[in-house]
Amino acid sequence: MSTTTQQSSPSDNLALVNSWYGPGSTTSWYLTCLSCLISWTLHPKKRLADAITATIITQATFPTVASAHLITQIRSWPPESSMNEQTLAQLRASLAASLTITETYLSLCIILLLPGLFVRTPKRLCLLAMTGAFCLLSETYLYFALPSVRYPPGNFERFFLIDSLPLLVLIFVLACVLVGLLLAYIYILFIEFRSEEIAETTSGADTGTVDDDGLENKPTKPTGLDRLAMPLMLFSLVGAGSSPILDLLSLLKIYKASKRSWTGEWSFVNEFFPKTEASIMDLGQAVALFGGMSGLGFSLYSVADAHYQQWWQRKRKEVSRTQNN
């Protein structure tokens, strides 16, 4: 009597991973985040605009859906007695896909928050902070709701926050302090903005004139927020230094597993992409990738066109001034 053991292949373990986390969708999301960062740092007008645009909603939707999907998986987790090893591996792979997106956004959120600290963009700051807090809360919920998932260590192929309670607590405390400072920042900014608006309205009513260039001549940061901006920058930098610890640990794990010989140049890059059965050649993934590339292209064109228009206006003023002289 011979016994045969069936080992599940990697493709079988990815059977429950949603195609939402495919390479095309994930790459499109990264390109959208890059488009937002380019607009918020290089565009002369959009970096000062406090508006919730379609691009901002798109970059915040992907991690929000991943966090909501993570919570849904936790609540629908079947009893351990009804699962075999293959089913457990499939469920863990599905959790890992959501965790990859949420933890990547925790690092990206810090980077995306920094440009908004120097300009008056409370709406943008609030949306980014709420999305990052939701991602962190979903992982905290996973840590306490499913302790069996994180034991024994090494259930996942890469390092996550749930694998280290001290690091999870550190990030959670930093996030709470950062969100509190952001709320105070937005509140004081709103009060000062309203005060300036009332003062301008009163001044305009007294003189009977309105300065069309008033918005352009406003300072980019209220002076009353200098003391609050410094701790915001400090905690943002600490958070930016703490979040990549996960990525460095993943890098060391890959390096150790490969016995000090890289298995491929994309080994580290693949850690930021959920493992799914979906391929970039699938129609849905290709369309998503094309959408992200188009958004990045339009963002670059918008920045170049805005700087060209500014240069052309300055050139015309110089020519006009020369002719008048």
Automatic annotation (TrEMBL):
Chain intervals for the UniProt region annotation (Disordered): 203-222
Record keywords, A-Z: Membrane, Transmembrane, Transmembrane helix
Segments traversing the membrane: 20-40, 52-71, 91-113, 125-146, 166-190, 228-246, 283-304
Segment forming the signal sequence: none
Superkingdom of source: Eukaryota
Protein's UniProt name: Uncharacterized protein
